[in-house]
Amino acid sequence: MKKMILWLFWLSLPIFIIGFFLQTILIPTQDFNALSESDLLKIQQDVAINYPLGIFMLYGGLIVFAITGIFLIFYFLKSKIAFK
């Protein structure tokens, strides 16, 4: 079980990074300060490579990373306490 959790932990990092790049504007845009937040979101949804998939992968990877990270920390602390 620990190997599967460790595998999921390391798999979630590239998913998180790929999701970030899919939902981000990769072309230079000027005057971000002049745009309102809703206009910026609309431009991001139009110009991003694949905004819905990117958001799903970004948040999904972040959630899996956090859950597996907490489990691995708990497992590590449990093994250290058991040896004492």
Task: Please tell me about this protein's structure.
The protein is an all-alpha fold and 84 residues long. It has one domain. It has three helices and no strands. The protein has helices at 2-23, 37-47, 51-83. The two termini are 23 Å apart. The mean pLDDT is 89.
Quick structural overview:
The chain crosses the membrane at residues 7-29, 49-77. The chain has helices at residues 2-23, 37-47, 51-83.
The quaternary structure here is single chain
Structurally, the number of domains stands at 1
Shape: elongated
Gap from first CA to last CA: 23 Å
Major beta-sheet overview: none
- Rg from alpha-carbon coordinates: 18 Å
Mean pLDDT: 89
Keywords: Membrane, Transmembrane, Transmembrane helix
Transmembrane segments: 7-29, 49-77
Topology:
Layout: H1 2-23, H2 37-47, H3 51-83
Q: Tags for this entry?
A:
mainly alpha; transmembrane; membrane; transmembrane helix; elongated; about 80% helix; about 80 residues
